[in-house]
Specification:
mainly beta, elongated, disordered C terminus
């Protein structure tokens, strides 16, 4: 990526530049298809260019896009524009499959499930739209657009809402499965553990909560007593989950780390 309007393709073995991928503006992002055959580069003039990764040959220009993402099997590309829309494209040829319309505010995220059959677009209008990723057909409109994530097996989808809840949905039908209630303010983000057995939600109430996804649809929350003792100093704006399964022998919460002993001693002295 570069401000000189080029992305460069390099041979890993020799370190030589194979080709230059030229845009009309600075190149700000790029994505590589899962099989390594295609590159999608995004420039500041809101264009995505699709390239053959072997030769560096230009395949297509996908207009009106601020970012692009390949499906897990590489057969589809989703792009998001500044016009409240997303677009679905053929991952091999760059041919447009369908415009994905219906959101009423900015679309800021697009994510495919693990088998490439579903695409979710999230918007500031507090909705997530679930699409058939093969045809571009709308499957369902789901409440919650602050965060949208598929489970590792691709069968469920979790959305974060402004009403302080997270919602779990069936990704095939868009059917509501359960509502996760417990936060006192808007839920900013939600994520699954890599094994799909836990869900983590973060909130403007300065806490994160860990949910036992295996008990759903009961929706039991692991009691996080330590979150009552020490909260984050600011609203949680982004959650990430490690590549390791989340397993716990006792209730756990995610909080700011405890202050070092010397700092705690100094705080206690100052309070006297």
């Amino acid at each position: 990526m570069s401000d000189d309007k080029n992305a460069r393709l390099w041979d890993v073995a020799s370190g030589k530049c194979v080709s230059e991928l030229t845009h009309d503006g600075a190149v700000v992002k790029f994505e590589v298809s899962p099989d390594g055959s295609r590159i999608a580069s995004v420039s500041e003039e809101k264009k995505v260019r699709l390239w053959d990764a072997s030769s560096g040959a230009a395949i297509a220009t996908l207009k009106g896009a601020s970012f692009a993402v390949f499906s897990a099997i590489g057969t589809r590309i989703a792009t998001v524009s500044d016009e409240f829309t997303a677009h679905l494209w053929d991952g091999a040829t760059g041919r447009e499959i369908a415009p994905l319309t219906g959101h009423h505010e900015l679309v800021y995220a697009a994510v495919f499930n693990s088998d490439g059959t579903r695409l979710a677009t999230a918007s500031n209008d507090n909705t997530t739209r679930l699409w058939d990723a093969v045809s571009g057909r709308l499957v369902a409109v789901l409440l919650g657009g602050l965060s949208t994530t598929f489970s590792p097996d691709g069968k469920r989808l979790i959305t974060a809402t402004q009403d302080g809840t997270a919602r779990l949905w069936d990704s095939a039908s868009g059917r509501a499965l359960v509502m996760l209630v417990g936060h006192n303010l808007y839920v900013t983000s939600a994520a699954f553990s890599v094994d799909g057995k836990r869900i983590v939600t973060g909130s403007g109430d300065k806490t994160a909560r860990i949910w036992d996804a295996s008990t759903i649809p009961k929706g039991n929350i692991l009691e996080v007593a330590c979150s009552l003792l020490r909260l984050h100093e600011n609203p949680i704006s982004l959650l990430g989950v490690t590549d390791y399964p989340l397993t716990f022998d006792r209730p756990v919460c995610i909080t700011d780390p405890p202050a070092p002993e010397p700092l705690r001693a100094a705080e206690a002295k100052a309070a006297q």
